[in-house]
Specification:
With about 120 residues, this protein is an all-alpha fold. The protein contains 5 helices and no strands.
Length: about 120
């Protein structure tokens, strides 16, 4: 079960990398952008830097937590902490750069947090 959940955490983290892809020119509904949210309207171009930093943290924490859970490293005792940091930071990222399609990721993060709280 650790391998399956670990691989899920890695995959979920890598999906956040879609924020780094260029927006498709003919797809106005593309949800992964840093420039058209309520937050971007308030802080301007700084939202791009903030979004990239948050996304990098989320990706790194989810991937590392998955690797630690699988047992790739001797730091496997840190998987729970890294997964919690990743899920909460991802929720914050989604709230700052909201798009209605992100409700799926928001729900996944919420389930991850609830699972982790039960484990603690």
């Amino acid at each position: 079960m650790n391998i399956i959940f670990g691989l899920f955490l890695i995959a979920h983290g890598l999906v956040h990398g879609l924020y780094f892809l260029p927006k498709p020119p003919n797809d106005p509904s593309f949800p992964f952008f840093f420039t058209k949210s309520w937050f971007a309207k308030r802080v301007g171009k700084s939202s791009i830097i903030i979004g990239k930093v948050l996304t990098s943290i989320v990706m790194a924490m989810f991937v590392l937590s998955g690797l630690f859970l699988i047992g790739i490293s001797s730091f496997n005792y840190l998987w729970l902490t890294f997964a919690m940091i990743a899920a909460i930071t991802s929720e914050f990222l989604f709230l700052l750069f909201w798009h209605k399609w992100l409700i799926i990721g928001f729900a996944i993060n919420l389930v991850i947090v609830l699972i982790l709280l039960r484990i603690i």
